[in-house]
Amino acid sequence: MSVLSLLFVMAVILAGACVQSALGFGTTMITMGFLPLIMEYSKAMGLSIFMVSISTVYISVKYRDLIQWGVMLPVLIPTMVICGIVNILSAKVSSDSMYLLLGIMFVAVSIFFFVFSNRIHVRPTPKSGTILGIICGVCYGLFASGGPTAALYLLPATKGKKEYLATIQAFLCLNNLMILAISLVLGRLELADLPMVGAGTAALIAGTLLGLVIHDKIPSAVFGKVIYAFVGIGGIWIIVSHML
């Protein structure tokens, strides 16, 4: 991989890690929007999951006393089951098809959060947790991005910003580690990728620390609108680029 490509990877991962630690999710939404531009979709997914696993482990440990395990389980169990199945099956789908679906999903998420997020309030019950867990598992398995769906359940179920951050990071951490194991078995990351992984890890640490500072200083709602606008534009760009 060239120096320019490594710098591109680092910039994308730094931005993703910053969003992740500021909002509670978002790394893979950014990395999977840009990394497939310079590498295979499956490799981009493997690298994204590896990077976000480090970030979620760090934040989960940092705020371990605030994790609400009882709140998390109703959505965690169905997510992990569906995610594992879908992730293995998605290895047989072409990269072009997956990237196009990713673009459509980004646009849908962006529209949803701008139009409906203030109108829909999900009650954190076992039933809603199971339903959202299934949806989250599909999104996680196909696109390595289940954070927005999980947030719909965990945000109203937790009492404060820090409690929410700790709980959703633990949720993402457990799912990420499972997908990472599947990715390594399927060969999505190899020894030849070590320089890229090392550069990405350095960017991840910087982005995570910066994001935690932003989390404390900027209201998540304001920051989130900017991010989802960015996600939507990225999704439109992916779709248009496949139509040209």
Textual characterization of the structure:
The protein has 244 residues and is mainly α. The protein has one domain. 80% of the residues lie in helices and 0% in strands. It contains ten helices and no strands. Helix 1 packs parallel to helix 9. It is globular. The mean pLDDT is 81.
- What proportion of the residues is helical, as a percent range? over 70%
Report the structural category: mainly alpha
How does the major sheet shape up?
Answer: none
Task: List the domain count as a whole number.
Answer: 1
User: What low-confidence regions span 5 or more consecutive residues with pLDDT below 50?
Assistant: none
- The coarse overall form would be globular
The ordered H/E elements are: HHHHHHHHHH
Task: Please tell me the overall pLDDT.
Answer: 81
Task: Please work out how many helical segments DSSP would assign.
Answer: 10
Quick summary of this structure?
The protein has helices at 3-23, 27-34, 41-62, 69-89, 95-115, 126-143, 147-157, 161-185, 194-217, 220-243. By secondary structure, it is mainly alpha-helical.
